[in-house]
Design a protein that fits this description.
Helix content is about 50%, strand content about 10%. It is α/β, with parallel strands linked by helices. The protein starts with 16 loop residues before the first helix and ends in a 7-residue tail after the last helix.
Length: about 675
């Protein structure tokens, strides 16, 4: 029996597309299974309302009677088209609901942060060494509130997505874990009855420590649940459904065109082109299988089965975008040649059935992939690329940037040779980076505007960040390679420094991925260098030994690096790009690497930032792209978030910090993208 007619347990096997493409029989079988699974989910979400469920059967690639034909491929195209047309509307609806809930509970969360900080200060005035005890008391109540939380009930469609591991219900991971945890501080401990002056629900009063903590925990959990709902829906309806269908539709339409030409166009030239298109179709189908599996990863695992977080996933989606454009170009060339032939052969054109005539129309880029989409949570129109450099101007500016980058590294080497003290070396290295960033942005004509939420200054004063009362962790989005020079620019912005109560920009430690400069590596045989004038390994060494950063290895044990980074937060502020990599398209926002938060000390204040418009300045697509553009980046600094009130206790399976990581992603999303409808 042909392998493609057999059932394969796709859930038990990880298929990467490069391996899968080597066995077409297995590929087609797994692809068909995945496609039927998507149809079943789409039906539960209402994409096929009023359609007989018996009609929602994916035509198999191969049957005992032979391979799929035009009729089956045409039916596939209709099924995919129905989902493709329905996704944007459903996404708007789902995201609108989630955003309304998120916006409603946000003010209470930030009020609870202030309440906690003020009561903490009063508590520590009695015993300055009781910071651990205070946190232990709060976490006892936090776990109690988590056990009792019941904040969201999914509808049928969302429950089906959760059942297929493509989504999850807010707090569904943490709540069952909390139910098994024992209280650390007994309920009858008299410390709970101590009273403190505070503001609860807008009223000045005195309240017990337990009541204050319960209020803070409840407001935090409401924000966590709303944030997780928003982040998970974004991942499901943008990263998976909208993007996946955009690519899937092109693959399906290309397959239909190829079969039509194979049967009806005898031209040898066209047939040769079709052979190349067919190879790309199989590659695209293999990528779709891997993409589907990536979205089924269990988020509770610190180390995913295949991957989901970071570089591997965005590289896959980048390659899917590149393949989509390549397929469209090849198909449109074939369509052009056929139409040129039919222009002088009206009889042949008349024989083409009406339902197939649309195949001879040129394919168009899906709106999501060319920044013309309409809807909610899209890029703001006033930011991003505002021009394109000619090849000559781009080459000139790249040359100037290489010169600036070489000087940047030469200065690092000079600083290293001076044998300065730690503080002096960090200051010198930091100012070297600030100077390089200024030059980089100026060379490419990139302007940066910084907007600081008014609550940043208010909370910074309450938390006494100017006194170093808490560790500070800056938490920017990561949409482009140019996030780094923009971040340096932001950290010397007067408006941010004033809000934080800092006189000058302070040297920070950064948790950086190893091989960061490999993107711009030049090779000649065994010799290699980067645009910075040293190879990637030497650049990583300088980051650690001169700049005081922590370089995270791509493979192997990352715990040591993360723990070193957490330790350095005791000395200076930190920066972490928790997405782990840049985005493949402008509104891609992948789940954050929640394992990082399991190592961060609880007494940290997290300051989220969103870099609007930066993706189009230096897009990730196509592969190895160096087309850098001028434009405007708008940086929004969101209100600080307290690790003590928001991060879960490091107990059992709460350690991965899944829900807090989703909340942090949601905060970035609502500041990065326009939640209102863009026509």
């Amino acid at each position: 029996m042909n392998t493609s007619t057999q059932k394969i347990d796709a859930a038990a096997i990880w298929f990467d597309h490069q391996t899968l493409i080597r066995n077409v029989d297995v590929l087609l079988t797994v692809y068909d299974q995945a496609a039927q699974g998507v149809l079943d989910l789409a039906n539960s979400e209402g994409y096929f309302e009023g359609v007989d469920p018996d009609l929602l059967k994916w035509p198999p690639s191969r049957t005992p009677g032979g391979t799929i034909g035009l009729e089956g491929l045409g039916y596939r195209a209709k099924l995919i088209g129905a989902i493709y047309e329905g996704v944007p509307l459903l996404r708007d609806q789902r995201m609108g609901e989630a955003y309304d809930q998120f916006r409603r509970v946000a003010p209470d969360y930030y009020q609870s942060v202030q309440l906690y900080a003020r009561v903490r200060e009063q508590f520590l005035q009695q015993d300055p060494d009781a910071t651990a005890q205070f946190l232990e008391l709060y976490q006892t109540v936090y776990v109690e509130a988590l056990r009792a939380s019941n904040v969201f009930t999914p509808d049928e469609g969302e429950a089906a997505l959760a059942g297929a591991r493509l989504s999850r219900v807010p707090l569904s991971h943490a709540q069952p874990v909390a139910e098994k945890l024992k209280d650390i501080v007994p309920e009858d401990d008299p410390i709970w009855q101590a009273t403190y002056p505070c503001t609860l629900d807008g009223k000045e009063t005195r309240s017990t420590l337990r009541d204050i903590f319960n209020n803070t925990a409840q407001k935090t959990l409401e924000y966590l649940a709303a944030g997780e709902l928003l982040a998970v829906r974004y991942n499901t309806y943008t990263n998976f459904a909208w993007f996946g269908c955009a690519v899937w539709k092109i693959i399906s339409d290309a397959e239909l065109l190829a079969e039509f030409c194979r049967r009806n166009v005898p031209s040898k030239y066209i047939q040769r082109k079709i052979d190349g298109i067919q190879e790309d179709i199989l590659l695209g189908q293999a990528m779709m299988v891997e993409f589907f599996q990536a979205h089924q990863e269990n988020p509770a695992q610190l180390k995913p089965t295949g991957y989901w977080y970071g570089h591997h996933y965005t590289s896959l989606t980048r390659d899917m975008i590149d393949l989509t454009h390549a397929l469209m170009d090849k198909c449109n060339l074939v369509v052009y040649r056929i139409n040129q032939h039919l222009k002088d052969n009206e009889e042949e054109r008349a024989r083409i059935p009406d339902e197939l005539a649309s195949m001879l129309e040129p394919m168009v880029v899906p709106p999501l992939l060319d920044r013309t989409a309409a809807g909610h949570f899209l890029e703001y129109p006033h930011v991003g690329r505002n021009a394109r450099y000619s090849p000559v101007k781009r080459a000139t500016r790249l040359t100037r940037w290489i010169g600036a980058s070489w000087r940047y590294v030469r200065n690092k080497l000079a600083i290293e040779e001076e044998n300065l003290g730690e503080r002096e070396q960090l200051e010198a290295a930091w100012h070297n980076s600030l100077t390089w960033a200024e030059r980089t942005l100026k060379i490419f004509g990139i302007t940066v505007k910084v907007h600081v939420d008014p609550m940043v200054g208010e909370l910074a004063r309450v938390l006494k960040l100017h006194e170093g009362r808490y560790k500070v962790l800056f938490f920017p989005t990561h949409q482009s390679v140019f996030d780094h020079p923009v971040m340096y620019k932001v950290l010397q912005s007067r408006v941010l420094l004033d809000a934080l109560g800092w006189e000058d920009s302070r040297p920070c430690t950064i948790l950086s991925r190893s091989g960061l400069t490999e993107y711009v590596t030049l090779r000649l045989g065994s010799w290699s260098t980067t645009l910075f004038g040293v190879n990637a390994a030497e650049f990583d060494r300088l980051l650690e030994e001169v700049d005081g950063y922590v370089v995270l290895p791509r493979a192997g044990d990352t715990n040591n690096a993360t723990q070193r980074f957490a330790g350095l937060l005791e000395k200076r502020p930190g920066i972490i790009y928790a997405a782990g990599t840049t985005a493949a398209f402008d509104i891609q926002s992948i789940p954050l690497q929640h394992g990082l938060f399991s190592k961060i000390p609880p007494d940290v204040v997290i300051i989220p930032m969103a870099f609007r418009g930066i993706h189009s300045i230096w897009p990730k697509c196509p592969r190895r792209n160096i087309r850098i553009n001028p434009g405007q980046v708008e940086v929004v600094v969101a209100p600080p978030m307290m690790g003590e009130t928001t991060l879960f206790p490091r107990r059992r399976s709460l350690r991965p910090q899944i829900e807090p990581a989703a909340l942090f992603q949601a905060v970035q999303l609502v500041h990065l993208l326009n939640p209102n409808h863009r026509p």
